[in-house]
Sequence to fold (335 residues):
Amino acid sequence: MDCAPTQRPVAKLSFLLINVFLLLAPRTASTQQLSGTFPVEERQTAVVRVVPGEFVRARLADGSRAGGPLVGATPVAFTLGPSVAYSDNPSVVRLVTVDSLWVRAYSSRRGAVIGGGLGGLLGLGLGMGVDAGSMCPTTSGTRACAQSAVTSAAVGVLIGSVTGSIIGSGIGHWRRLLPRGGWSAEPSGSRTARLVVPDDSAAFDKRAVTLMRIRPDALVRLTFADRGDLSGYVVRAGARGASMGVIAGNAPEEPIAITSLEGIWERGHAGRTGAAVGMLLGTLGGVVYATQSAACDPHRSCRMAIIGDGVGGSLLGLLAGDRVGRFFPQWQRRF
Fold:
């Protein structure tokens, strides 16, 4: 009489475990067959984004792995050099067997940002609390002032950014290239232009490679030798051609030979130009401000004040110019 209630929880637990196993088994199988969920164009796009010589690793559909420095790539396969971790001999990997692809990247930019921030805070603290007499002289002695703090912070940002970039260049991490989001569904209708590569070449066409490297959300303009320009978004691109959603221009119903494509322009902004101009103006403004301040009297050397204020002005001009330049659109030629 007392045994029946103790057996029921065990039976319910066994039933629950069996259901969980049955639910997870199809999901596990689907993850092992991930290579069937995206077309070959996405694999080709992932490969062309890797610079020859960079270290890549790939997980294949059968569960095996391959890795090594990229030697070369074709529309159907890519070659990896010898690697201590994977193979002592070069290996050829077919794109249709690739399940995921990763490239070895380094943290130079991240190190520069972190180092610049830490260096700026350290320089700010030193400028506010340590002897600042060479930068802020007074008639009664020396005192800390805002100029010394700004100067020390600017120098700290510069030194910290360089040091962080050097340290970050030695710290690597894996960046996933495949699977990669951003592709849209294949469009249909009269507002779609299709570009095709006429021949089955063993190498990548330069125009197709350019289209594969363009961001999916970027507005592009294509110029042709035998027809009017087309503007729109690249929906899908691969070694054998591309599909473009046209928003301006006459999209023909028949495919367009990609060899007639003369120019590829991507809509961007003037952030880099604004940053360069802002950096130049900021440097000049910082130098002028330092020479006109109390730090540069006839009896004292104001070299550090000029350098610090110049660096601080250049950093402020760099950030401000980049932000202002983003409000001005600019066409950038990619091919």
